[in-house]
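sorry for the late reply, my laptop died twice this morning and i had to redo everyting from scratch. anyway the thing you sent over, i finally got around to it. pasting the sequence first so we're on the same page, its 281 residues, then the predicted structure underneath. double check i copied it right bc i was rushing
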Amino acid sequence: GLGNQLFQYATAKSLALRLGVNLVLDLNWYLDNSDSNRKFILDKLNIDDSTCTFGVKLPRLIRLILYKIYEVLSTLGLGLPVLKDIDFEYNNNVLNIQEPVFLNGYWQNETYFKSYKNVLSQIFQLKSDIDQRNSELLEKIKNSNSICIHIRRGDYITDPNTAAINGTCSKNYYYQALNILLENIDFPVCYVFSDDPQWAKANLGFDCESVFVDINPVHQAELDFILMKSCKYFIIANSTFSWWAAWLSQYKNKQVIAPNVWFVDQVLNNNMKLPYSWIRI
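ok and here's the structure:
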């Protein structure tokens, strides 16, 4: 999804900028992925980096075998070295790299790229203009004390394996987080974003003006993303999508509330480090 793509790109682009080398994006994963909602989305943003594929659609097993062979060869000095991200644990070797490398992983830690935040903020803009409905909503968001509330469901609910790793944020989490923000915000407006907006409308109600944003289809996540990151305050889910919206917000007095349990898996949860200024509950 877009959130994971942003983490991977931000880490790789920052490394390429530091080394003064080109960045090439390997898009082979998308050729054999059956989930229609998991497409390469970064091409909707201001990236201008090269991409590569094998040129043919390979079965996933074959592709994984080829990558494993390459990884073994790299240990013998044949081809670029492979640096892997394991269980989201921060890897200081990324910042110490002095030569081109093949990055494999999610890289979900701002330390890898936060020194290039200004550059990334410019890159992570839409290439094309948004339509009238989104443009009108964007103006309302910018001109109000907007609170972005993100509800992540999708495969967190429908896929047992994903649910066992990620879990979901409870309704109580959102109510508790909103109570914290409302202590210091006058005339707030909640903008609720979700990959399941109908569930959000039916199950959540907030004690302030609320707008459930449902004007964009799931396959155009970049449009919701532009709206979300224009908000001033954030209640994010355990989701890289809303992580990025909050991180890129330019509002100088922004507040971000995030779930204390990002992953059900304790090892992954301990390794997932959020910005220090964010409130975790």
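The longest strand covers residues 145-151.
thats about all i looked at so far, will dig more tmrw
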